[in-house]
Amino acid sequence: xxxxxxxxxxxxxxxxxxxxxxxxxxxxxxxxxxxxxxxxxxxxxxxxxxxxxxxxxxxxxxxxxxxxxxxxxxxxxxxxxxxxxxxxxxxxxxxxxxxxxxxxxxxxxxxxxxxxxxxxxxxxxxxxxxxxxxxxxxxxxxxxxxxxxxxxxxxxxxxxxxxxxxxxxxxxxxxxxxxxxxxxxxxxxxxxxxxxxxxxxxxxxxxxxxxxxxxxxxxxxxxxxxxxxxxxxxxxxxxxxxxxxxxxxxxxxxxxxxxxxxxxxxxxxxxxxxxxxxxxxxxxxxxxxxxxxxxxxxxxxxxxxxxxxxxxxxxxxxxxxxxxxxxxxxxxxxxxxxxxxxxxxxxxxxxxxxxxxxxxxxxxxxxxxxxxxxxxxxxxxxxxxxxxxxxxxxxxxxxxxxxxxxxxxxxxxxxxxxxxxxxxxxxxxxxxxxxxxxxxxxxxxxxxxxxxxxxxxxxxxxxxxxxxxxxxxxxxxxxxxxxxxxxxxxxxxxxxxxxxxxxxxxxxxxxxxxxxxxxxxxxxxxxxxxxxxxxxxxxxxxxxxxxxxxxxxxxxxxxxxxxxxxxxxxxxxxxxxxxxxxxxxxxxxxxxxxxxxxxxxxxxxxxxxxxxxxxxxxxxxxxxxxxxxxxxxxxxxxxxxxxxxxxxxxxxxxxxxxxxxxxxxxxxxxxxxxxxxxxxxxxxxxxxxxxxxxxxxxxxxxxxxxxxxxxxxxxxxxxxxxxxxxxxxxxxxxxxxxxxxxxxxxxxxxxxxxxxxxxxxxxxxxxxxxxxxxxxxxxxxxxxxxxxxxxxxxxxxxxxxxxxx
Length: 805
What we know:
Elements: H1 2-32, E1 36-44, H2 52-60, E2 67-68, E3 86-87, E4 95-96, H3 105-110, H4 113-128, E5 141-147, E6 156-158, H5 164-170, H6 174-184, E7 190-193, H7 199-212, E8 218-225, H8 231-238, E9 263-271, H9 272-278, E10 284-293, H10 305-319, E11 328-330, H11 337-352, E12 361-364, H12 367-370, H13 377-391, E13 393-394, E14 414-416, E15 421-422, E16 431-436, E17 442-449, E18 471-477, H14 480-496, H15 503-513, E19 519-525, H16 528-540, E20 547-549, E21 558-563, H17 571-584, H18 586-602, H19 616-632, E22 639-642, H20 645-653, H21 659-676, H22 686-690, H23 714-722, E23 735-739, H24 749-761, H25 770-773, E24 792-793, E25 801-802
Parallel strand pairs: 5-7, 5-8, 11-12, 11-16, 12-14, 21-22, 21-23
Antiparallel strand pairs: 1-9, 1-10, 2-3, 4-24, 6-25, 8-9, 10-17, 13-15, 16-17, 18-19, 19-20
Helix pairs in contact: 2-13, 4-6, 10-11, 14-16, 17-18, 18-19, 18-21, 19-20, 19-21, 20-21
């Protein structure tokens, strides 16, 4: 019987272990295939396309971004070049805000435009994700960039000696990702990829894999190409693969070759579960992706149809989907007749076969608008289709006279998007495949899906219940000029926003999603009209009574806090001030409740959270709550001073006393006076002093006792509580004084706090405004204008001698 019992126990244990192992396997499998959220996007593409919204305007309006060769790149062309002098180009490839990234002018000149533009784009992408870039420093954030076309220095005959230390790194593909990681302080993988035309889609694939494996928590992924010379045109012309009119005509009978373009694009990726938990935007979801190679086919640069089919099926398998669950494909579609025909055949064999003619696979390509943007092609395609999902429309593909006769279109339900097609939402998520193939033979395919519905409701507007409270809008930039532009952009954005965000929501978005830079302005007012008036003053470089800004000759100053010991005489004003502080700062309200509750355990008559009694105990509790608020905002005083119970609050802020011990000591004023009806005797404090536990100070507390009485001792506090000598005065003039006596009947307590913090923030200290501006548990985040980079022209060939192509 004993053996049978042991066997039963063993079987139970084995069964439990098996269940646990199966659960772990399920979790591992789920993690390997977890959807990846597209959190934000940024791009620079032909046709003056500077944002994803610009790209949508370009494709939805059916505009052609192909133009003549740029006239600002010192290109010297051979006589009668064998190609059309047409392509898709960036407006200002030479522009760069070197000072923003602490890069000297000489290094900037020696650094290729791709690296420079990617730095701009990385900062912008993070801000578009509603994340303050400085918060990513030292985090496992990855960078995966497809980088092709490093021809910046290829025309040089000689270069000045001062450029030589920088040219190697400045034209290195590895530093396209490495420089982003360095500039933002990112410590996840930083990988540059060059698989030619599929580079950026391969980079996206690698980023998704790294996120699923936990190698990084966030990832910047994308790619780009900037043509510093016409070399690429020359090379493809000799391969006879360029279109006569410089335009891609994807899958068209009239297709006669590629039209070349350039561009850069980045997206911010995060595991879907993390994005939801962190409250980040989810623009779309990457369900699956795959990469493979053509191998030994018909030629090194020739496309391989079976390999294209394999990579599509692998991406579908990674996504756990069947072909009929995908609505459209944003194709590689370069406009080369044979390449397009092979791609169509692969799509017919995978997505088109056994598909209902009533629900065909829609096929298009952004290259018809921008030209083939090479290293940026896959990212441009993804950004286009994220926008298509958001606008419920599949935009048209240009330059298609009729479908190419080289493909057997009747073998499957695949249709070209020769005009816009409605893409309505339905019960099942809408999905699109994105393809990128390359002369390297490396193929990539990705499945993009519309975002899931939010799983939590957003909070009501932050100041709906308290519209009369002041707020602080914080702006900052690296230069005064950029600060003015920042304010101008904010005014333009908010005056056109629909619906108009509340002042408190704007305050929180500015505080939580933007990094504090050197030149700062704090705008303090109550309603939107007043705040916009102050912002216009910043934009114009004017002064305003509600504006606090960094002086041009500012120098860091030390900070002192003074805790006043005398409660306000006006109980009504005190109650009103406390109520306003509670409504404006939930952190203050929570800390005040905690202090009042602890005080209540040491008082004969407990205080209620809504107490309006202007007693020393309540005054003390307000001070401790304010101290908690300031500490949560990252404000640390160099010196703490105080009088009466204010000195006890200062000791709590300095870390000498716990909150409970500080409350115990503060309650001994009040209790002794209440019991005897007269000022307390020294003996009245002894019971409380014996129960205190003193700790080393973490902040400097100005002493009110003789030098031989250490602050962390009962003797010091016995002297302080019984002494009739005047307490030390305020801090020296070299300090920024924050006087925590906010219950004045003549001014708003909230405005007093905000103004004091504004002075501190703009005079050498840094305030973390995010905890101060969070009036609801889950505040709605907002899109705001990104940083206005101050671009200066840096172009290598302006400073060197060179040879013609």
